[in-house]
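One such shown below:

_____
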Amino acid sequence: MSRRRAPTAALIGAPTDVGASERGASMGPEALRVAGLQRRLEEYGLKVVDRGNLAGPGNPVQGPVNGYRHLDEVVFWSRLVHDAVLEELRAQHLPVLLGGDHSVAIGSISAVARHCRTAGRRLRVLWLDAHADFNTHQLSPSGNLHGMPLACLCGFGPPELLALAGPVPAITADCVRQVGIRSVDPGERRFVHAQGIEVFDMRFVDEVGMRATVEAALAGLDADTHLHVSFDVDFLDPEIAPGVGTTVPGGPTYREAQLCMEMIADTGRLGSLDIVELNPAFDVRNRTATLAVDLVESLFGKSTLMRRRGQSRDRPGTDPFVPRAPVPFPAVVRSG
């Protein structure tokens, strides 16, 4: 696909962990800045503006009420994020949301959905995560809203979070592609299947390789499609990315993740980005933040490609990334 002229990227910090099970994701935005996110993106010719951090309520550290922990605080943050992301989209900027736990995606994707409806564009949400994040208060034993953002966006959740984008649901399941899933609660798994979300779990990646996985997840993108990437850092294997609150073994390796990001960049369709669940409290010398920045660089143009673009690959069967016909696999259920 042809590349568009790179827009201005706007960094928006959402320093909150009110939706999470563990404290610490509120420090994620600063960890990404310390790892040099703005400078590294500017080195690739991208104009970057840093809007600083949004200011919202702190974490009251309370138990669930009617099945939800910290609902009022999550609603407040979601509205803040929605308004900030929508403002950047209306200015024709590419918003980069620096989380924060994954509940902030309720606000960012609601804003993107609203913008796409206004502009008459299709939306594709690429959800890179170890978890499906499709719980409800009936299914979740914890009530943590960082396990429910995608369900809320698809119309299943507290009313205060469903109508941020106007119409309910904000998005439909057919615009979502999940990659890297490997920890799903049993009831959540059934619910995901009932909604028809397209899931490329780690079993799928193991069977067909990352290249075929990403090709399938990105199939159908065109010039009228806005691609939103919601990058939960626990998508990565904890051996290379320990700085998250909910580690799940068996995730993508560095090279698999790098390939995934480069293939997304190759589409030229990236329109908005979340970077979430980075938790410096669990990290080692900012190692995970540095890795996340490295991968985000690839989303914006850094490439390990040495051969000329369009040059034929090795013969089928000799290249570990030769695509094979994707075969649907159910989401793998593991305790997490």
User: Anything to note?
Assistant: The two ends are 38 Å apart (CA to CA). The first helix runs from residue 28 to 34. The longest strand covers residues 225-232. The chain has one domain: 9-299.
